[in-house]
Each structure stands twice: as structure tokens, then as C-alpha cells.
Amino acid sequence: MRLSGERFSVLYRIIGQDAGDCYAKAQDICYEQTVEFPPELVPAGFIMDEIVGRIESCQQINQTCCLAEISYAAETAAGELTQLLNVAFGNISIKPGIMVERLNLSPLLLSNFQGPRFGRSGLRQLLQAPNRPLLHTALKPMGLSAGELAKMAYQCAIGGIDIIKDDHGLTDQCFAPFDERVKRCAEAVATANIETKGNSIYVANVTAEPQETVRRARLAKEAGAQGLMIAPALTGLEVMRNLADDPTIALPVICHPAFGGSYVLGSGGISHYVLYGQIARLAGADASIYPNFGGRFSFSREECVNIALGTGEEMGHIKKIFPSPGGGMSLNSIPDSIEVYGNDVIFLIGGGLFRHGPDLVENCRYFRGLIDNYS
Amino acid sequence: MRLSGERFSVLYRIIGQDAGDCYAKAQDICYEQTVEFPPELVPAGFIMDEIVGRIESCQQINQTCCLAEISYAAETAAGELTQLLNVAFGNISIKPGIMVERLNLSPLLLSNFQGPRFGRSGLRQLLQAPNRPLLHTALKPMGLSAGELAKMAYQCAIGGIDIIKDDHGLTDQCFAPFDERVKRCAEAVATANIETKGNSIYVANVTAEPQETVRRARLAKEAGAQGLMIAPALTGLEVMRNLADDPTIALPVICHPAFGGSYVLGSGGISHYVLYGQIARLAGADASIYPNFGGRFSFSREECVNIALGTGEEMGHIKKIFPSPGGGMSLNSIPDSIEVYGNDVIFLIGGGLFRHGPDLVENCRYFRGLIDNYS
């Protein structure tokens, strides 16, 4: 068997008892993630030479932590996103102290992925906002009727919010069924756009099982929704990617982080850069939601810097996408966030939009005013 | 709006600075997982009374840890597995120190789920092994050709292994393409069964994007595979559930833990009981693979006891399934494992099967002999 010789690599942060232990763990990864076979029994030749992972470098960061770059033959991933992630972090997700810090994907592998359909520039074009930071809010709380949510969507659009999405907890509950909610909310935002000559979009949450996700996406598009939100840790990443790739849907896709936080909170797992940046892009998201620093979640400023980098750094033909940090937005916090993200950011403001004052439209205008300073 | 009044609950283990902090976190979960709205702004009446989660009990385990049972209206989950998991652990997956210890699902919610098609008794019937522990192995290493893997499958079946599955790293690589591999391996096991008058089954790994998973499952069935393996952390749980529910497929489904370990390794996440037991069952698995205690992974004996309980405790009409602990199987370790699992276990033996001696058939017979003592 001859392979192409093309390899991709994964940068791992490995915690061990000492340098020797860290290196031994890097060696273990080479086998665990490919042949999953005792090293002494791996057949010499093709399998040992080409299939087993290869330590390209191993840099000790401190006594108990190293950064190891391990490469794999491109063919081990079989051109599949599921198998790529399986090689990068399948079994070792069950071993403590191993963090995927970065994916370095080869052209051959990347050519299997279309990536985001819109990306930063496509989304800016749709919203007719060529330069400024964007604003994003969620319709909630769960328990409101479709009519009440639509009224809220109308007010947010009147107030100048760019992206008005379902809260990720709104799926198809009896109190606001998907089909009715989506029709009414899309209509409400369209009505407001006519009044304001604005370009707000309504984004429907289509998180469900695979076929139902597609059914909802199609219905949302027909109803006039101009974007889709999905939580891939609940649905599977490929369900999100199929939405993005489907030419009959062709709507922007926003990635919600629900149910996936465990990957970034441990001493092992997947780095913020990879999970909210690289993987979201590979799986077709145009924007990636996560909790901003300084809010009610625990992400640090540095972790958010890394997310911004992950959404924007070069990745072959895969488009750059928007980071969409949520929470903690205030007059005082915006300059610091702009310092981290620049203007290529979609601020997600949820509860704060309702807390600011009694009039939702005025609250929207206030926050819109804050970012219009950065045009 | 009137709801049914039926509620389900989630038992959380919460880490805080002290008892007051633990309780405040439990209160926060009630809002975060439902309305995601500042408590002071939640409308009184229906939403506050019915939609916001409710602390049913909160027991302080020690100074910095409590067990809180929080109930939710059944309707918040909308009859969807994705949304059930979103209510149980969506946003709070991104908050540190919160572990889902147990799901207590109501009859209304459970009625949405068919659960495993075979379960313990169905799988025992298929394998014609009414009482003894079962044996399970994986075809590997990656890099072998379809013919080489088929030869190995034949030998394992001759040697008396009950379930012979693809290694989870074998998907559709050029060196052993899915379609060819599955046909040859299924045929090899069928041939061996004729010779031995045995009932070994070949299980194909169908982990891929949703439509391709179904295509591969159908092809596997046609080729004579008698089971399917899938890694739901890579595909999405609903992809596994659809396989199990599909009456045109109707094969046993084995759940592989790849890419999902981060849920169980942190101070927050999802307990072994819930992830490998309850969730696997809700999502249709007939057997749940995980690393056994005493092996090359880090699960403790107690964690494995909890997995065994999660696969076997009452859960309405949802069938009991097999725990399938992998790794570390030896003459010395079996009595301890039997003490944990009883006879209702599928021992997964991988590399060890090749390490024991030079003759694979003899090695299989050796391990089969070890468990035949427990008939």
C-alpha cells in the first residue's frame, strides 16, 4: 500500500509527572489514536512507518507539561470530519491531562471541507454592515407564546439589533411550537425592516435530530428566516455541516455551545481556539457563540483572545467566521472587548437587553448606539 | 397555558465555596437551564411557576459540595432527546463544578424513547448464550487490508469470541474500504460459524455523517453483519438512536466512547452512570463500551460499578443493556470484574488477545475458557 505522504498534525498539551512521563504519554498517543495496539506487536513496515502517529516535536513547557506535535497520515482520517476528530482526540479524550491545542490540517484533508458558506464577509454583506461590530440577541424566556416572541422580535429589529435569534432553549415546545414561532418571528422582523429600512435577520434554532433539523431548516427558510442556529454538541457536528453545505438551504449558520462546555473546562479536552474556532469552521458555522470574559461564565480574557484567533486565522480555503461572545456587555466593557476582537465581532446580548430599562426598543437603540461608535 | 404537571428531575453534584454558594449555584441552574433570564425579570405566573426549574432537595455532602435535585416541567424537553439533554446540561456544561449525577425521567418523557431494541436478553438470544459473560474483540490494527481483517475475524470466530467488531478507528480508509471490509468480515464470521456451529457475530463500525451512517448500516446488514457500532460523541446521539429505531435495520447497536471522555474526567460534566448507562440506553445502545478499571485508562472500580448500575437499573420500559468494559482482562482480573458486573457483562479484549501468545485462535480459546467457568 502506498499513501500520498501528506500528513496532518495535532498540537497537544500534555500533563505528566515529569518530562519523561510527558514524552511517554506523547508516544502513547501515537499508538492509541491510530493502531490502538501494543507497540511491540505492530507489524513492521507500512503500518509502523505510515499509520502509527509520529512525534514531530516535543517541547517541555515546565516540569509537568509539554507541547507535543504529533502527525498522522492524511489517509487515516478518510476524508471524514468524524474520523478526523477521532484520530485527533477519540480514545485519548478518556485519558486525563491531554488537551488538543491546535489542528494543523493539510491541503488534502481541508479539500474535503467546504467550511462556512458565508463567513465574515458574507454575513456582513447580508446585514449590510461593512465595518462595525454587530449585535445579536436571543428571544426569550422560554414559556412565552409564539405571538409574544414575535412581538419581541419586532421590537428588537425596530431597535436596530442585527441578528435576532431564538434562545437555544426554544425548540418545539407546546407553548411556542416551532412552525408557528418561526413564521411569526420571521414575519415580525420583515415588517420591522420595512419600517426602518433596516437589515435585521431572524435566526431560527433548528437543534433536533438530523432529519427534523433539515425539515425545520427548510420550513424556516420558506418562512423568511435568514439564518439558522444549532448546538452541535447536541446534534453532532455533521448535522451542522450538512446544513451549511446544503445548497437548497444556503442560510448562515450560527453555532451554539450548549452541552459542549466539558471539552474546555478540564485540564484535558479541546482548547477554546480549536473548539470554538477551528472545529466550528470545519463544520460550517459562520459565527460561533460562547460566553465572553467578565460575564457570568468563567472564560478568561486570554481564552477569548484565542477564540478570536481561532475564528480568524488562516485555514486554507476555509472562511473566517465571527466570534460571538455573549454576556456582560456594558458601556464600560465594550472598549476592552473591542481591544480583544476588533470590529469583527458579533456581541450577543441577552438578559442585559431587558435589564437596561423598561422599554425594549430603547434598550436596543442604546446598545446599538454603543457599537455605532466603532463604525 | 396549562401543562400536564408532570416533571422530570436531574440530580446534580455541585461544587461551591461553601454551603451558601452551593445553594446559590443550584438556584442559578433553575434559571440558566430554562428561561436563561435574570430572575428579577422573569414574568410572574406561568413562567415563574411552571417553566423555571425547581429545587426539590439540596443535601450538603461536605463543606464545598452538595447534591441538588432540580425538577423541570416535562414539556420543557419537548419530547426531544437533544432538548432533554439541553435542559439537563446545556449551558451549565460551560460552568465549572456541576456534574449530572442522575436523570429521573417521568413516564411522559420516557414514552418518547423506544430505547434499545435488543437489550441484554435480546443480545443473549442472538448469541445463544443465556447466562455466561460474553466476549468481544476488535479487528485491528488500522492499516491492515480488508482481507487481512477478514482473516482475523475468521480466527476470532473459530476461537469462540461472541462479538467481533471493527476497531473504532476503521471507517472507510483506502487501505480497507468500508464496503469491501464489511462484506469480507461478515462472510468470514459466517464461514467460521458453519465450521464451529457457533453464533459469533460481526459488528460493523458505521460512525460517519448521518446519511452515510445509514447507508453503511444498510450495506452492513445486507452483507450479513449482525450488529453495528457507533461513537455517538462523534456522530450525535440521535444518529445512534435512529439506527436503533429503524425497523428496516433492526440490528444490535454498540456504543463506543471515543471523543466523549471529557464529559466524565472533570470536576463537572456527566457521571459515568448517566453517560455510559442512562444516556446510552435512551439513545438506543444495546451495549456500552468503556475502559475497565485496572487497565490503561483511569476509571476507578467505583466508577465502573456505577456504569454497571446505570446499564441495569430500572428505567421504565427502557431495556437493560450490557456494560462492555475494555482492557486489562487477564486470568487474575476476571474474578474481580465478575464481582462488579456479575455475568451480565461483555468483556472487550483488544490488544491483550494478540499479546497472549503467537496463535490468535488459541488465544481466543484461552479467554473463552476463562469466562466459560462462569456459565
Order of helices and strands of chain A: EHHEEHEHHEHEHEHEHHEHEHEHEHEHH
Content of β-strand of chain A: 15-25%
Shape annotation of chain A: elongated
Question: What name is given to the CATH topology of the largest domain in chain A?
Answer: TIM Barrel
Radius of gyration of chain A: 22 Å
* Cα-to-Cα separation, first versus last residue of chain A: 57 Å
Provide the descriptors you would attach to this structure in a database record.
elongated, alpha/beta, 16 helices, five-stranded mixed β-sheet, Alpha-Beta Plaits, homodimer, TIM Barrel, 41% helix, 375 residues, 2 domains, eight-stranded parallel β-sheet
List the helices and strands and how they pair.
Two copies of one chain form a homodimer.
Chain A: E1 7-15, H1 19-32, H2 46-51, E2 54-62, E3 65-73, H3 81-89, E4 98-104, H4 107-110, H5 119-127, E5 134-139, H6 146-158, E6 163-166, H7 178-196, E7 201-205, H8 210-223, E8 227-230, H9 232-235, H10 237-245, E9 253-255, H11 262-265, E10 269-270, H12 272-282, E11 287-291, H13 301-312, E12 322-326, H14 334-341, E13 346-349, H15 351-355, H16 360-372
